[in-house]
Amino acid sequence: MRKFHWVILLAVCLGLAVAVSVAQAQSVPPEDGASIDGVTVAGNLPWQYGVLDSEADEYNGKYVDIAISPHNGVVYVSYYDASDGGLRVAHSVTPGTGDCGPSNAWKCETVDSGGWIPNDDTGQHTSIDVRWVDRTYGIDYNQVGVSYYNATDGTLKYAEYYCSVSLPITCSWSTQVVDSPLETGDTAGLYSSLKLDSDGDIVIAYQYYDDPDGSMNFTRYYSLRRAYYVGSSAGNCGDDTNWQCDTIHTRSYNPITFPATGGPTAEYISLDVNYEDTVFIAFYQDGDLYYTWYQGFGGSCTNTGWNCVLIDSSGDVGMFASLHAPDSNADKMQIAYYDSTNGDIKYAIMVGSGGTCTSTAFTCYAVDEVGAGFTQLGLSLSVDSEGAPIIAYQHDNQEQYSVVSLKVARPASRMGQSFGIGNCGDVPPGYLFMYWWCETVDDGYQDIVWEADFAAVAVNPEGRAYVAYYEDDSYYMEGRLKIAWQEFYMSFLPYLSKQP
Questions:
Q1: Side-chain-facing half-sphere of 464: CA atoms under 13 Å
Q2: H or E segment at 252?
Q3: What is the total count of domains within the chain?
Q4: CB–CB of 109/87 below 8 Å?
């Protein structure tokens, strides 16, 4: 009998040892966040969703982006009104005081409807960011910047919400042109991606397309460009030459030769700035994922002041890239992107050396299988206050009634799962089990709604996530902007604010 007790005790000890080893294996890089803290609890809250902006027989919500004020948690969403050809912005307000969204807790407004040009089509490829301006004199406010594309004249534009310093203090939106095409047939501003750095300086990455003869028959050029505001007519582009536009990388492309020579570059651009205000840009070229940064000289881009690095070339990879640059010395660069060959959402994280990507400075692995061959797919990455990633994405839901759905993925440890064991994706190097926890947020209904053709995710200071996304309803022939959010209670409780 005594021997039997010893056997039981030994089995229990072995079980505990295995459990500890599993926990240790699941807590190695890329992200340690295994502790159950306030951010983890917030990240595990249930999701609610509703329509943010819609109009019968209209199409609102494409090219959506989202940003949250780090100071007061006000949520901002930029998007394209396809029916009226305009840029719109929504922001959260005190419930009941707004004019759109669940519980009228949002204010939706048109920022740019094209001005005097009839049927002007502006507001595509939006990118939004927000920064708190703490003034010694005047009122404190959220500086909001949006980059976007005007399809009528092929220009890159910028809109900003600004509050004056002098009396009477007024707050309003203003718009300006950042870069214009030099010739008919050229475009400036596709795939725009914007950030405000720690000083509030504006930086935008985008594609410039140059068709020299305008005929679409011979060699044309695709360029990755960066624009930043300099003011005082000290720049080389934009209204009153107040902007500086620099070419980072250029590719030529001739589609009529056999085989075709060269190829486009600077597609699916994603820009971010790190804690030192260094600019990093991810982009797609020839079926591969790249990133670049300014190093001054000796770089591998066509502008050798910039270094272009191939991250992943394992198939057709890199479309819909979404990049996070480190927020601190302990944080890591992270990128979510689409693997069209295998139909996966993939994730790359910088590890310095010994990684599994084409560039061994990165480790790459699948997050979830979503279906191959998407030509438009909502995909967005953000991080919480401790650098743990969250990815919002469109998922091909063939086994259910809906064609596609909106899903989110987070590290299983962030979701409070036992030993950090996930339910989707690859098993990363150094792990024993899946790393990601994937869940459906909005699965649409009965084959008539395409959810999340466009999607953008952000995390507020408490760790609660918001996802803005587009819903294409083929039955009612209209598009809607939707919002999904996590909350502590069943009623809608955004941060309270009466001003953007």
A1: 18
A2: strand 243-254
A3: 1
A4: no
CA distance 248 to 229: 17
- Give the position of tokens 């707050």: 171
Residue with tokens 């983890």: 40
- Tell me how far apart the terminal alpha carbons of the chain are, to the nearest angstrom: 73
Of the given ranges (123-132, 169-178, 314-323, 410-419), which has the lowest mean pLDDT? 410-419
User: What distance lies between CA 457 and its chain's CA centroid?
Assistant: 7
pTM of structure: 0.90
Report which listed range, 116-125, 350-359, 404-413, is most confident: 350-359
Integer angstrom CA distances of residue 11 from 1, 4, 16, 122, 470: 16, 11, 9, 68, 53
pLDDT at 169: 81
Residue-wise pLDDT for 422-432, tens only, equals 999 999 998 99
- 208 assigned to some structural domain: yes
* Region class of 89: left (phi > 0), else alpha (psi between -120 and 50), else beta: beta
Average pLDDT over residues 333-353: 97
Q: How far apart are CA 114 and CA 254, in angstroms?
A: 34
Q: What is the largest CA-CA distance in the chain?
A: 93
Residue 8 lies in a domain: no
Q: What's the rounded Cα separation, in Å, for the pair 389 and 209?
A: 33
| CATH number (domain holding residue 61) | 2.120.10.10
d(CA 367, CA 436): 6
Contact at 8 Å (CB) between 333 and 326? Answer: yes
pLDDT at 385: 86
Residue-by-residue DSSP string for 339-357:
ETTTTEEEEEEE-SSS-SS
Question: Is residue 114 a part of any domain in this protein?
Answer: yes
Residue with tokens 């959010």: 485
Tokens of 109: 């407004």
Domain that holds residue 82: 31-486
Looking at the domain assignment, is residue 217 inside a domain?
A: yes
